[in-house]
Specification:
Shape: globular
Strand order of the largest sheet: 8-6-2-3-5-9
Largest sheet: 6 strands, mixed
Number of strands: 10
Strand content: 25-35%
Radius of gyration: 14 Å
Structural class: alpha/beta
Order of helices and strands: HEHEEEHHEEEEHEE
Number of helices: 5
Length: about 160
């Protein structure tokens, strides 16, 4: 899928103009933060996993890392990322542009609490050169997330930046 399909999706909510199309790559947290001009931790990275043979996406803050123990407690199995060559087919977006919008129907989305410390975050918008700034309520709504989870480490809890 592409940034075009993501923009079409957001058009139904009247916010397609919030999608940012960048000149340079935003395929990694560091590149996205540089391209957008924000702190790396405000980049909402979308990670692709297989849980019980079902594709799931977990959206986490840019400075957060999956904690294997917490992941196992939440999903009752070891964290298993989807191989990069399979991501586009399984999720609906290619690596670098994976986002929780306009994904394949059976894919479930989870949001990690590491993002709740920010007023807005920047997930990708369907390509490795796109993003969208959303507040936490908007992210929850537009991603059709199943629930909030606490499965990350490496981020500082009481650290709000705008």
């Amino acid at each position: 899928m592409s940034v075009t399909k993501v923009k079409e999706y957001f058009k139904s909510f009247g916010i397609e103009n919030k999608v940012i199309e960048l000149e340079q790559s935003s395929a990694t947290v560091a590149l996205a933060a540089e391209a957008i001009g924000c702190e790396p931790e405000r980049i909402a990275k979308t990670l692709s996993f297989l849980a019980h043979d079902k594709a799931i996406l977990i959206v986490v803050a840019g400075d957060a890392k999956i904690d294997n123990r917490k992941y196992r407690e939440e999903f009752h199995e070891k964290a298993k990322m989807i191989p990069a060559e399979d991501v586009e087919k399984v999720i609906g977006h290619a690596p670098g542009g994976v986002c929780p919008f306009v994904i394949n129907e059976e894919v479930e989305v989870y949001l990690d609490i590491s993002m709740k410390r920010f007023s807005t975050v920047y997930p990708a918008a369907g390509s490795g050169k796109s993003a969208i700034e959303l507040n936490i309520t908007e992210l929850e709504k537009y991603s059709n997330s199943k629930k909030w989870v606490d499965i990350c480490k490496g981020w500082i809890m009481n650290h709000e930046k705008n």
